[in-house]
Design a protein that fits this description.
α16 runs antiparallel to α17. Strands 1, 4, 5, 6, 7, 8, 9, 10 and 11 form a nine-stranded mixed beta sheet that branches. Strands 12, 13, 14, 15, 16, 17, 25, 26 and 29 form a nine-stranded mixed beta sheet that branches. This protein has a five-stranded mixed beta sheet with strand order 2-3-19-24-18, covered by helices on one side. By secondary structure, the protein is of the alpha+beta class. The radius of gyration is 24 Å and the shape is globular. The protein is built from 17 helices and 33 strands. About 25% of the residues lie in helices and about 20% in strands. Bound molecules: guanosine-5'-diphosphate (GDP), 2-phosphoglycolic acid and manganese (II) ion (2 copies). One of its GO terms (biological process) is cellular response to glucose stimulus. This is phosphoenolpyruvate carboxykinase (GTP). Pathway: Carbohydrate biosynthesis; gluconeogenesis.
Length: about 625
């Protein structure tokens, strides 16, 4: 028996002050909430306390509304499946806007709109948009509650799916209101699915609105998202706050907000180092961050799988990183006990799945989870499917949302308020050609250049065509909240914040996705430890030109012998192919980077990066 909250208490909220007073003495926050209530006109308002009971009540509500399905508790306790609308399955980059004061501040990689016009236009969209619904207020903290590196946000939403997902992905509830106190700063985030209900109207299992848009105001540090319920567009703590708004804050305050996993690597001698790695969406971050290493004696522990906030620690002058999130919102397809056993263990319970298929036993399934497709399935499109059907049972961007604490290899320091010291930064992308398995930058400036020239083949994480090569510098193309030319300058200048450049992480680039005859040549996944081992050892070496590397036009590439391939079934010829630097191919790359650089205004674009490109062009020029 489900108890629905009573239907008639929006009158209660015309006199909401007293009710709000019970929750907080933060006058700015209360005023903001009252103004939103007046605009959205919800039937009910619910301030989230973040308790387990609240979570369970909202799960029950979603099941009752028909928007969530409970999985078989014997197979997957406290776990649920939600299927979205066909048009609401990924981030919408063409509907994501950076509304800085001027278009120049947003830069050529962002969609810009005038902040005032947009505010007015969106106010019209938001007017009465929560009629017939409950407005939830979610106080959330990005980063451990006791960390100086954390920031607070408050998200208003009319989606219980968002509330339950935010409960997994962030620290949220009363403790955050307490931390906020009476005058703490917070980033106000508003979200509505844009689907008001009139009395008696039956709700859709995935309410949404065709006029989807995700809008950021970096100067005012606020986020407005309308019409979409999909994770990246609706869980505003994640991409919108922790990357787009945070990157703008980080630039002002002298730190880095990056699209990076954080991983601890321990060698057989027991020496431990942490690495941060930026790969574009659906290019292997979650997998690398919790990988089960395939060589003996090495250990991997996960701090974060998607976002890193990093600053120079005053105590020792090194770069420290925290994971601002508390959960994993990971790509399901391709995840299996073979490829990512730790993710599989981490999603055995307490997990919300989106757009996966359901088995007759009441468990989940997706492409790549097992070799054999189950005989019968209900697809993410809610259709029946039998084994012979060739369409996808799960959407290629189907996701799991699970608490980080459940990951069997979660790092003991994952909630350390100081963060963890970073020894190396690794860039990477999905490149079927040209880019070698791994190489190292000569220094910080060259490393920044390597980050700036990243290109990657598009994936299902964003709406649009897949497999098209596009620039994705630092894996931040869709997430940088300001002009990327300034972002590059920020990275270049960041070196001067460290007391000694030697204390800064070494910089590397990897590519797991090089193909021959349309097949991946490198085995990937747990075998990537072989590359991490090389990187790990390189971070001990003072002079990058030392040891068993080949100096190439793009940086230091390992000699084929220096990558440990013992016990691995790979030919010398394939290793050569994986590590080769073909100057002819790199001439084409240079053209791509020139074209990318030419999109920026000459005054803004850092000369040091133009210089690095000139150098590369000269080195790969035809003899
Ligand atoms: P993220 O979105 O960057 O976190 O990427 P994921 O780790 O979720 O991986 C995205 C997709 O790439 C999944 O389908 C993975 O199975 C696949 N993938 C991850 N790592 C590798 C790898 O080393 N090699 C290959 N071939 N595929 C990988
Ligand atoms: P991903 O996260 O990087 O794990 O794919 C979501 C996204 O970037 O859209
Ligand atoms: Mn991501
Ligand atoms: Mn991921």
């Amino acid at each position: 028996q489900v108890k629905l909250p009573c239907r008639r208490n929006y009158v209660q909220w015309t006199n909401s002050s007293r009710v709000l007073d019970r929750w907080t003495d933060h006058e700015v926050l209360k005023d903001w909430i009252r103004e939103r209530i007046a605009l959205f006109q919800p039937d009910r308002v619910h301030i989230c306390d973040g308790t387990e009971k609240e979570f369970q009540d909202l799960i029950t509500l979603q099941i009752h509304l028909g928007s969530m399905i409970q999985l078989n508790p014997e197979l997957r306790p406290n776990s649920y499946v939600v299927r979205s609308d066909k048009e609401d399955v990924a981030r919408l980059e063409h509907k994501t806007f950076i509304c800085s004061d001027s278009a120049a501040e947003a830069g050529p990689t962002n969609n810009w709109q005038d902040p005032l016009d947009t505010t007015n236009r969106m106010n019209t969209l938001f007017e009465n948009s929560m009629r017939g619904r409950t407005m939830y207020v979610i106080p959330f903290c990005m980063g451990p509650l006791d960390s100086d590196m954390s920031y607070i946000g408050v998200q208003i939403t009319d989606s219980p799916y968002v509330v339950t997902s935010m409960k997994i992905m962030t620290r949220m509830g009363l403790a955050v209101l307490q931390k906020l106190g009476t005058d703490g700063d917070f980033v106000p985030c508003i979200h509505s699915v844009g689907h008001p209900l009139v009395r008696g109207q039956v709700d859709s299992p995935w309410p949404s609105n065709p006029q989807k848009q995700v809008v950021h105001f970096p100067e005012q540090r606020r986020i407005w998202s309308f019409g979409s319920g999909y994770g990246g567009n609706a869980l505003l703590g994640k991409k919108c706050f922790a990357l787009r708004i945070a990157s703008a804050i980080a630039r002002e305050e002298g730190w880095l907000a990056e699209h990076m996993l954080i991983v601890g690597v321990t060698n057989p001698k027991g020496v431990k180092k942490y690495f941060a790695a930026a790969f574009p969406s659906a290019c292997g971050k979650t997998n690398l961050s919790m990988m089960a290493p395939e060589i003996d004696g090495w250990k991997i522990e996960c701090v974060g799988d998607d976002i890193a906030w990093m600053r120079i620690n005053k105590k020792d002058g090194r770069l420290y990183a925290i994971n601002p999130e508390a959960g994993f919102f990971g790509v399901a397809p391709g995840t299996s006990y073979k490829t990512n056993p730790n993710a599989m263990e981490g999603i055995k319970k307490n997990t919300i799945f989106t757009n996966v298929a359901i088995t007759p036993e009441g468990d989940v399934w997706w492409e790549g989870m097992s070799k054999e497709k189950p005989d019968r399935l209900v697809t993410w499109l809610r259709t029946q499917m039998t084994k012979g059907d060739i369409e996808d049972a799960a959407h290629p961007n189907a996701r799991f949302c699970a608490p980080a604490s459940q990951c069997p290899v979660i790092d003991p320091n994952w909630e350390n308020p100081e963060g963890v010291p970073i020894s190396g930064i690794i860039f990477g992308g999905r490149r079927s050609q040209t880019v070698p398995l791994v190489y190292q930058a000569r220094d910080w400036q060259h490393g920044t250049f390597i980050g700036s020239i990243m290109n990657s083949e598009t994936t299902a994480a964003a709406a649009g065509i897949r497999g098209v090569l596009r620039p994705d510098p630092f894996a931040m193309y869709p997430f940088c909240g300001y002009n990327m030319a300034d972002y590059f300058s920020h990275w270049l200048n960041f070196a001067s914040l460290a007391p000694d450049e030697k204390l800064l992480p070494k910089i590397f680039h990897v590519n797991w996705f090089k193909k021959k005859s349309n097949k991946f040549v490198w085995p990937g996944f747990g075998q990537n430890i072989r590359v991490l081992k090389w990187i790990f050892e390189r971070t001990d070496i003072e002079n990058p030109a030392d040891g068993s590397v080949v100096k190439t036009p793009i940086g230091y590439v390992p000699t084929p012998e220096s990558i440990d391939t013992s016990g691995l079934d790979i030919t010398t010829e394939d290793m050569k192919y994986l590590l080769q630097v073909d100057t002819r191919e790199w001439r084409t790359e240079v053209d791509i980077y020139r074209e990318f650089q030419s999109k920026f205004s000459k005054e803004k674009f850092p000369k040091r990066l133009v210089h690095e490109l000139d150098l590369l062009a000269k080195e790969v020029a035809a003899p």
